[in-house]
Amino acid sequence: MSDAPVVNASPLIYLAHADLIELLQVEGPQVHVTRTVAEEILRRGPQDPTAQILENTPWLRQVEPVQPSPKVLSWKLGPGETSVLSWALVHPGTVAIVDDLAARRCAEVLGVPFIGTLGLVLRAKRKGLLPAARPVVDKLLVAGMYLSERVLSRALALVGE
């Protein structure tokens, strides 16, 4: 990786609400949050766990967004996804942490390395940072993340669960 990963709002929200924000550091000790994503989070209000974590976690580094890439704009993604993927395009090798399916497809087409919240859990398990993935995934589901039973079963099978 040539740069710290950059994260979109949904992984931040799920991980914050599940009290698992440290999983972001599976991709690097520092994680970038574009101002566009930060503003989306902060609109949730000062009592929101994600807003509190964003304001009080030194390794979550807020960065100014880059000019949106026309290649990304053509996908008509939300402002957060657009800022994250545009940032990653300008900073080659940067991993985009995104859950949105359209954003993931855009990243794939544009050659941007990406991972989602579930992928972070699986990577942490593979690295021996978690004894089991299932309890962590269960916390994320309680926090509002949606996974179909098929996706969940296939993912857990990848880590022997």
Q: Would you kindly provide a written description of the structure presented here, covering whatever features stand out?
A:
The longest helix is centred in the middle third of the chain and has 12 residues, at 79-90. It is built from nine helices and five strands; from the N terminus they run βαβααβααβαβααα. The protein has helices at 9-17, 35-42, 49-56, 70-73, 79-90, 101-110, 117-126, 134-142, 149-158; strands at residues 6-7, 31-34, 60-63, 96-97, 114-115. α5 packs parallel to α6 (101-110). With 161 residues, it is mostly helical.
Give a short synopsis of this structure:
By secondary structure, the chain is mainly alpha-helical. The protein contains nine helices and five strands; from the N terminus they run βαβααβααβαβααα. Helices cover 50% and strands 9% of the residues.
Which keywords apply here?
single chain; mainly alpha; three-stranded parallel beta sheet; globular
